[in-house]
Write a structure and sequence with these properties.
The complex is a heterodimer of chains A (106) and B (116). Chain A contains no helices and nine strands. With 106 residues, chain A is mainly β. In chain A, a hairpin with a 2-residue loop joins strand 5 and strand 6. With 116 residues, chain B is an all-beta fold. Chain B is built from no helices and eleven strands. In chain B, the strands form two sheets. In chain B, strands 2, 4, 5, 6, 9, 10 and 11 form a seven-stranded mixed sheet that branches. In chain B, strands 1-3-8-7 form a four-stranded antiparallel sheet, with no helix packed on it. The chains are: A mainly beta (106), B mainly beta (116). At the A-B interface, strand 3, strand 4, strand 7 and strand 8 of A face strand 5 and strand 10 of B.
């Protein structure tokens, strides 16, 4: 079955750039989405179709996808961005989630 | 506004079944697929399957084939997810989520606890 691999954690200082990777076989041939989830809350879509932002998502969130890796980038990270981030893609009519990356804003 | 409101928490015994509902409002229910995603305590997101509210057609994750049934009632714009033969490792928060090129609206989650 298809797998998406994410590092378990990322740490950044406020104002710095946070980058999250998501790796999967030929992931660049699929669309990647990204979700933010804060403790006790439902996930929120922050990027879809590799690099599109839903309305209401700040411009500091951006995405890219090429080769075997999709990347979510948060520019000028704020304390409020501390959360778990999950990538997601489709494979043969099946949705696959990565294991998630915990962002700590130091 | 677009909203998905789920049914309340459930406590079930091993071997029982649970049926969770997801009431949609603020958009045309039959225009978008509905997914079901669960999250065990301290774990990541796990996709269970989806339903086309227009046709009733379903896709289930292989892991849940034979144990999960997704249905809908278009007259009350509600989707349902029923999981049978519950085990302790089915203890999780179950979410419905609307699909529009990404899961853009999520329900608040329904906690299902399986315990003897």
């Amino acid at each position: 079955s298809y797998e998406l691999t994410q590092p378990p954690s990322v740490s950044v200082s406020p104002g710095q750039t946070a980058s999250f990777t998501c790796s999967g076989d030929k992931l660049g041939d699929k669309y990647a989405s990204w979700y933010q989830q804060k403790p006790g809350q439902s996930p929120v879509l922050v990027i879809y179709q590799d690099n599109k932002r839903p309305s209401g998502i700040p411009e500091r969130f951006s995405g890219s996808n090429s080769g075997n890796t999709a990347t979510l980038t948060i520019s000028g990270t704020q304390a409020m961005d501390e959360a778990d981030y999950y990538c997601q893609a489709w494979d043969s009519s099946t949705v696959v989630f990565g294991g998630g990356t915990k962002l700590t804003v130091l | 506004q677009v909203q998905l409101v789920q049914s309340g928490a459930e406590v079930k015994k091993p071997g029982a079944s649970v049926k969770v509902s997801c009431k949609a409002s603020g958009y045309t229910f039959t225009d978008y697929y509905m997914h079901w995603v669960r999250q065990a305590p301290g774990q990541g997101l796990e996709w269970m399957g989806r339903i086309n509210p227009n046709s009733g057609g379903t896709n289930y994750a292989q892991k849940f084939q034979g144990r999960v049934t997704m249905t809908r009632d278009t007259s009350i714009t509600t989707a349902y997810m029923e999981l049978s033969r519950l085990r302790s490792d089915d203890t999780a928060v179950y979410h419905c989520a609307r699909d529009t090129d990404g899961m853009d609206v999520w329900g608040q989650g329904t906690t299902v606890t399986v315990s003897s």
